[in-house]
Amino acid sequence: MHIAIHDVAHRFPGTEYLFEHVNYRIDPGQTVALCGPSGCGKSTLLSILAGWEKPTQGTIEKHEIGRIGWVFQNPYGVARRTALDHVVFPLLAKGWDRNDAEAQAYEALDLFDLGYAADRRFSALSGGEAQRLMLARAVCSHPDMLLVDEPTAQLDTKTAHSVSNVLGNLAGQGMIVIVATHDPDTRNACGRVIDLADYAPSETQPEVTETEAIQIEEIKTEATATEATVFEETSTV
C-alpha cells in the first residue's frame, strides 16, 4: 500500500499555478505534514490526493488504498447526537456489534482526551472538542489513508500540542497520515514534511488555454446577465 505523487501541478481556470513539479511517495507508517503559506494550495492538494480534484498536470498513484478518511477544518455533526454516537457510527456501519463498537469508540475518545464528553450532545461541545471528536471518529473508522486539514486551528495551545503528538503517532497504527497545517508543533510531530513553498511556480506562467478562456467568458456572461436582471428588477420597483 502506498500513494505516489508524480510531477503534479495545479491551477484553477484563469489563475496562476499554486504549485508545480511535486513528486513524493508516502507509505504506511508515515505521518506527513503538508506545509506552506496561506493560499499555497495545501487544501487543494489534499483534495487531489483524495480524488476529489483532478490535477492540471501529473498523476496520483494509489496502490491498495481502499478507505480514505478526511477531517475538515470546520467540524460538522448532528446536534442532538452524543459524542459517542458520532464515533460509534462508522463501526456500526461496518456491521460491528454495538458493545464492541462502543468499547473501540471509547478508546478513540480517550486518545483525544474526550472520554469525559462521551454522553454530551454535539451541540453542547466547544469548537475544540468538536474538532477532536472528528479526529476520534476518523481514527476509529480505520482508514488506509487519513487526510487532516488544519487540525489545531480551533484549539488552545496545550490541547493543540497534545493533538499534534497524537497525530504524529497515528501512523504507528499502519495508516498513511497527511496533515495540512500552519502549526510548528504539528509539523515537528510529523515524521516527514512536504513544504509547498519548495514547489512554488516559476515566475513565467503559461498562457490561458482556449478551454479556460471559454470558461472565463461564460462566467463573465453569466455575471453580466445577473447584474442586468437585478438592475431591471430594481428599476421597476
TrEMBL record:
It holds the Pfam family ABC_tran. Keywords: ATP-binding, Nucleotide-binding, Transport. The keyword Ligase does not apply. This is ABC transporter. InterPro entries: AAA+_ATPase (IPR003593), ABC_transporter-like_ATP-bd (IPR003439), ABC_transporter-like_CS (IPR017871), ABC_transporter_ATP-bind (IPR050166), P-loop_NTPase (IPR027417). One of its GO terms (molecular function) is ATP binding. Gene3D superfamilies: P-loop containing nucleotide triphosphate hydrolases. The keyword Amino-acid biosynthesis does not apply. It comes from the Bacteria. Residues 3-230 form the ABC transporter domain. It comes from Bifidobacterium dolichotidis.
